[in-house]
């Protein structure tokens, strides 16, 4: 792998950029690997990376039916925060957020992490009390958040209408080191590092069956042939139910489309991320100048990776109340991704009834921010059979009624 540096850019500039090598190899599938990861999104790639980096397991294939990051990883609104209420969630999201701080250096790939600060607006008394409770919980968990009032909100985000026609802004839950990162770059950075460790990234390779024998996983069938493995990690977000059926069990998740849209690019006008959960809409400004806007989930189970007009109308209406200046913006693109939602709005990182087969899913509307922490914990679970970060996120919690209720922190799409 060519190391990226200022020196490398200068050297390549002097020789017409003829010396760059491919970011990752394009290998043919081998008949067998120690570990196969299904799903070339952020979580699958991060899992493979930490398997290699933390446990020296490098005979690994990452099998992706489309292109890397073509699922939700490349479709999200890139928000990163760790201000969750429950201890297990705060632990994994804060681990992820802290890994994001140095991810570019770690991967030698610029993931454009921008800890510009994030606020979740409280627009009802109830919401205000809820966020105050979260701030207290975050203090105990070692997550740095605070409550700020309308004057400070207006100072941080002058384009906001804090008086609001329907709901005035009463305060906000502020996380100064929350922010955004470039989502494709996160997938590409991990992929490049995995390939450099000798792992095989198999794009355009769909898994069509999971092979097992005597209750143990033996491998997978793919559109490019059979691949054997001792351990299988399934990290396919909205398709988790489909893969679970191949493995012979059912998951307590529903798959629904979540939507987002971006405006035409404009001059810098907002250097924080704002989530307005009561009116439902959230917005940040990308480095290109587009206003990146998150909408809601469809109210019915489906597998469409498209946007729909009623969501645009609802979301834009909510945001115009909060940011009147965007009423004159043209919207450029809209899209959707299939998110995998659990009843308690917390993820599943777990062993399964099929020995050797592990599932990492249920990140729903908010898993981009978790990618490094999830990969770190899931790799440990796959390598050692247990991980403190994943301990509470097992499938058994649904049988035992040990829910990790994050419906307030994760109820809004983000
Ligand atoms: C519109 C939208 C906005 C969002 N905004 C945010 C946000 O601001 N912040 C945040 O934290 N999160 C956000 N999310 C959620 C976040 O994007 C996801 O939780 C996260 O990207 C999930 O990553 P993943 O790697 O698990 O899944 P994915 O990136 O979806 O990767 C799964 C991969 O599995 C592959 N696959 C599926 N079936 C098979 C098969 N049979 N064989 C081989 N491969 C297969 C798919 O092609 C896909 O590439 C948003 C999501 C959406 C849709």
From TrEMBL:
Record bears the keyword Cell membrane: no
Enzyme class: oxidoreductase
Superkingdom: Bacteria
Cellular-component GO terms for this entry: cytoplasm
InterPro entries: FAD-dep_OxRdtase (IPR006076), FAD/NAD-bd_sf (IPR036188), Rhodanese-like_dom (IPR001763), SoxB (IPR006278)
Alphabetized GO MF terms: nucleotide binding; sarcosine oxidase activity
Record's keyword terms, sorted: Cytoplasm, FAD, Flavoprotein, FMN, Nucleotide-binding, Oxidoreductase
Catalytic reaction annotation: sarcosine + (6S)-5,6,7,8-tetrahydrofolate + O2 = (6R)-5,10-methylene-5,6,7,8-tetrahydrofolate + glycine + H2O2; sarcosine + O2 + H2O = formaldehyde + glycine + H2O2
Location of this chain's protein in the cell: Cytoplasm
Pfam families, A to Z: DAO
Predominant localisation class: cytoplasm
GO biological process: tetrahydrofolate metabolic process
Domain (Rhodanese): residue spans on this chain: 35-79
Cofactor entry: FMN; FAD
EC annotation from Swiss-Prot or TrEMBL: 1.5.3.24
Span of the signal peptide: none
Family: Belongs to the SoxB family.
Designated name of the protein: Sarcosine oxidase subunit beta
């Amino acid at each position: 792998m060519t190391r990226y540096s200022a020196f490398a850019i200068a050297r390549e500039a002097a020789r017409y950029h003829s010396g760059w090598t491919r970011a990752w190899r394009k290998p043919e599938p081998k008949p067998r690997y120690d570990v196969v990861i299904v799903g070339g999104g952020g979580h699958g790639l991060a899992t493979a990376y930490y398997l290699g980096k933390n446990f020296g397991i490098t005979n690994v294939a990452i099998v992706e039916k489309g292109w890397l990051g073509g699922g939700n990883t490349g479709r999200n609104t890139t928000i990163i925060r760790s201000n969750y209420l429950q201890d297990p969630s705060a632990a994994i999201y804060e681990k992820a957020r802290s890994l994001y701080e140095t991810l570019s250096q770690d991967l030698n790939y610029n993931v454009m992490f921008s800890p510009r600060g994030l606020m979740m607006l409280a627009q009802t008394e109830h919401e205000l009390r809820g966020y105050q409770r979260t701030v207290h919980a975050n203090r105990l968990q070692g997550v740095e958040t605070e409550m700020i009032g309308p004057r400070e909100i207006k100072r941080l985000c002058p384009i906001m209408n804090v008086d609001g026609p329907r709901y005035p802004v009463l305060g906000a839950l502020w996380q100064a080191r929350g922010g955004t990162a470039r989502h494709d770059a996160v997938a590409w950075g991990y992929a490049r590092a995995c390939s450099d460790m000798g792992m095989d990234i198999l794009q355009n390779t769909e898994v069509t069956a999971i092979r097992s024998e005597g209750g143990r996983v033996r491998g997978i069938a793919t559109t490019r042939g059979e691949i054997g493995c001792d351990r299988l990690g399934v990290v396919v977000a909205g398709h988790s139910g489909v893969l679970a059926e191949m493995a012979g069990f059912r998951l307590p998740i529903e798959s629904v489309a979540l939507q987002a849209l971006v405006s035409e690019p404009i001059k810098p006008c907002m250097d924080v991320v704002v989530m307005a959960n009561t009116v439902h809409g959230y917005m940040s400004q990308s480095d290109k100048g587009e206003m990146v806007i998150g909408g809601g989930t469809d109210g019915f189970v489906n597998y469409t990776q498209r946007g729909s007009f009623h969501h645009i109308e609802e979301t834009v209406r909510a945001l115009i109340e909060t940011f009147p200046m965007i009423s004159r913006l043209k919207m450029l693109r809209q899209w959707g991704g299939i998110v995998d939602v659990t009843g308690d709005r917390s993820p599943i990182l777990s062993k399964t009834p099929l020995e050797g087969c592990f599932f990492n899913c249920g990140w729903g509307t908010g898993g981009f921010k978790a990618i490094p922490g999830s990969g770190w914990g899931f790799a440990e679970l796959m390598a050692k059979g247990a991980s403190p970060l994943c301990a509470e996120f097992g499938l058994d919690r649904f049988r035992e009624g040990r829910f990790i209720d994050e419906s307030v922190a994760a109820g809004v799409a983000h």
